[in-house]
Structure prediction request, 175 residues.
Amino acid sequence: MPNLDTQTIQLALVAMVALAILIQAIVFVAALLVLRKMAKSITEQIQDLRSSVMPVIESTRDLFVRLAPKIEATTTDIAVLTRSLRNQTADVQVAAHEIIARVQRQASRVDTMLSNLLDAVERANAFMADAVSKPMRQISAFLASAKAVVESLRSSEGASRAEANRASGDNDLFV
Prediction:
């Protein structure tokens, strides 16, 4: 090897640095070209997307412009309908409460009427029982006395009743 002095080493280092800067510049230029190409491609895709999406956005905007008054009118109608339903529900509740109150009053009235009717039937039953049983007891007593008279007249011995009682061993006094 020839003489490696400081100048040669410095020259070799400068050449290497220059070569490194040249390689770096080439890489940067290649990156710049790739980025430009990519930016151009992205721009084209954005333009394609914009051209396909913008009609949809415009038609959607037109649809909203056309439907906005109808939506507002429908919302207003629904609000009016809701208020009307609330009022009608309140009226139905008032009517239902009145009907329930009337039914309760009528039920109470019917209960009172039935209680009075059953009390009257019970009193009539008691009266009839007294009216029928008192004469029946009297008739029964009369028939029993008639039977006793007939039996006493029929009896062949003719013994009195008091003697028959004494003969049977009953020593109690009969009153």
In short: The two ends are 178 Å apart (CA to CA). DSSP finds two helices and no strands in the chain. The mean pLDDT is 86.
